Predict the structure.
Amino acid sequence: MTDTPTGPGGPTLAERLRGRSELGVCALLLILGVLVLGDALTMDTSFAQRGPVGPKTVPVVVGAGLLVVAVLLAVDVLRGGRGEAEGGEDIDLSAPGDWRTVLLLAGVFLGNAVLIQPLGFPISGALLFWGSAYALGSRSFSRDPIVAAVLSVVTFFVFDRLLSVPLPGGPLMGVL
Amino acid sequence: MRQRPSLPLRPALRTPLAVLSAALLVLLAPPLLSSGDGSAGGTHIPGLRFMVPNTPGGGYDITARTAAKSAEDADLADNIEVFNLPGAGGTVGLSQLVAERGNGKLAMSMGLGVVGAVHTNHAPSSLADTTPIARLTEEPDIVVVAKNSKYRTFDQLLADWRKKPHALPVGGGSSPGGPDHMAPMLMAKAAGIAPKTVNYIAYDGGGELLASVLGGKVAFGVSGIGEYLDQIKSGDLRVLAVTSAERPKGLDAPTLKESGLDVTFTNWRGIVAPPGLSDSERDKLTGLIAKLHASQEWKDAVKRNQWTDAYLTGKDFGRFLDTQDKRVDTVLKELGL
Amino acid sequence: MDSLNSLLDGFGTALSPVNLLWAAVGVLLGTAIGVLPGIGPAMAVALLLPVTYGLDPTAAFIMFAGIYYGGMFGGSTTSILLNTPGETAAVVAAMEGHPMAKAGRGAQALAAAAIGHFAGGMIGTILLVFLAPTVADLAVDIGAPDYFAIMVLAFVAVTSVLGSSRIRGFASLLIGLTLGLVGLDRLTGQQRLTFGSLQLADGIDVVIVAVGLFAIGEALWVALHLRTRPDQPIPVGRPWLGKAELRRTWRPWLRGPAIGFPFGAIPAGGAEIPTFLSYVTEKRLSKHRDEFGKGAIEGVAGPESAASASAAGTLVSMLTLGLPTTAVAAVMLAAFQQYGIQPGPLLFEREPDLVWGLIASLFIAMGLLIVLNLPLAPVWAKLLRIPRPYLYAGILFFAAVGAYAVGGEPLDLVILLIIGLLGLLMRRYGLPVLPAVIGVILGPGAELQLRRALQISDGSLTGLVNTPFAVTVYVVIALIVTWPLIRKLLPRRTEARP
């Protein structure tokens, strides 16, 4: 983050919100911990167990650890500690987050998971590539679809035909 | 990427054209690239697929690929596609098979392990939901110890095991519910040892188990016979008993019955098909497997893989599946699984 | 030397034109398959098995060996370039290799990896020739308590990759351990965190977690903050390793086999733990510790060398004991059985031509691979020059192909996306992703070995410390943990030096 933590006296609204958003991570860890503990404690352990460590032990330890870390992290955040967002070559942290692109990419990826069986891999794969490229700012409508289609069909051919790792071929398989 | 500015097309036309050709490519290329399905005469079932419910290289995988290859070589089928759908000890594949109701072009290789996995995973579909085609091969389990173990006969081992079952760790190459787990549990039951007191330790396959047996980490190991033949011949392992009804060829070890335990147990593999097949569809699949079983190619493959032929078809195989299921169920219930 | 003579005979077998051809075919196939997502060497050998029925066994195994080693070389290529490890052995390569590639040092990262594989494979294979029987005897004596001790050591080592904020590092590690819990308990068959789903019963694969956190997570994170500047391709940089880089890499290359080879030979070995241990070792020993995480070449050289050496170690226990310690070895064992050959204690006596031909062909495969891969490094690196939208779209595309090809389950794609979103969240709030991946690798193994050791000792805690090996490892751990204290108590002169 580019801004530095200010004194307890006068944080701006934006800063307080930003500080709070990291509490979401604590909440996530808390939920995860409760989930793991709940799952472990409802486990049926009539199966023969030797010694102090059974199928419950490690989940209980991990679940408890998650709760402890959630609390410690919350304390750290409230005291002004802040996770340092990861930098990188292609990353511009000074710009505000572009959530639209992320949602678009996640949607395209999910679409691929839904469509891969009814429409077949060549179509869903091409849509995945084109959709992702579009979401990431590529606007070459005459080139992108062709690149996507060729990549998808070549991949299909290599996996399904050359390596016999079956991928769904699409609605016209067996018709033509 | 290549740009073709010289293309004599107005830019307005380029986009729809690109989209159109891309759409045609993804729609038409895959079916056209795939080879034709060939003739449908005789035993040939065009588009037949074998599902393998575990990973490439596993037991069911080798069975399915060998069967497909032998059928092709014997000219009983054109091109059987073998694909893997691993997960949850084979029950993911089983559920998929049951969902493909009425599909006469699908068969799944499976074995005793799937029967146990249905129980341990509380799977929604069971083998009773499938159309049984045939049992193909079987393999007895063996009870082995390292050459420097203090146990020289099965009787010595059994005496100790009865005295303090929990102090004798038993190693097996399968997870609970699998063949190497069932065998010692059945042995314990017959010997009057409560299965719950048996200290069974699951290893990830016969290979990992082998090290523990050789190193004396477990009191004895239970595993399929095929994996250990060489170690037995070299004298690194000593066989105390085999679980089959008769002594297998080329192995000098008593059966459990000879050792006074009334148990026979073999691990087997076979083929099942989706439910709801018409009689002709079922007969076609059974016919193909019957011809395959009679072919020289299959006989060679059985020999090469050191399998034991255990051919059983149709209704008999169905009844066999049923008894196996009940047997596994009783043991696992007693263990509280 | 007896084995030396046999090896020379083996070269005679392996250098016949036909076998040389199969070695070349195997090497090419292996490299290509390693580069493809979702298909590791194990799957490749299994798929090719029926094709090789017609070949004579020696030729088939020479080809398989080429695929195995070639897959190792190719596997790190996608890790480094696309941040998309195709198999577990290549996960560590992404950690330093990908940042190097992004900074325009992709060719050097690939070259360091290739030479690392060459060095590791060569040293490993030489150790295979001379130490095979000894190592095999020792490997059998390693049991559950010893494995657990090694796992504890690895967990202690994790603390050095937790990053600047300990709490956030631990949070990440615990997330990884949680992901590792999913699935059927291997010892008792209890469902854990599967929520009744059969697809989750086998747990979540390490590769899915690594691809989700590394590749999908990074692609989404970049999308969130994509630098809006005129499209500028990633610089390709110099194609070869410079003198300074060679000075930094030759020691890691030689250290890798010391860690990788023994791990490959032990029954529950594999390449994940040795590559990770090699990584932390290089990090500790490096003079450029601050560069780690941003593209330190030692972090590529050491682990890759360890990975190939562990492949050679795997062959030791497979050939001498008939003991498959990795998935590839298990498939190769099945292949041996197809030919009616039983690997095991009698193999060297019964099939000397085959075994020594195979071992000789390993050396030849190594030679072919380095000749093939070094010139390819700058070519591969140029792949990154494609425009950013295509690069990241391609990463998403290949990650999806890999996840789907393994099991054919659309659910795997959904899991991949969820883990990717988790990776995005972790990057946003400064949770390092590496400890999570390590948690998935170490957690299940450590639990399994701990409980197995306790079962063998019938519940007695002494079962954890009843072998000299385990005790030695715990002493080493105690020394590492207390070292900062000891150093303070020592006379001043150690502090006088910078």
Q: What stands out?
A: DSSP finds eleven helices and ten strands in chain B.
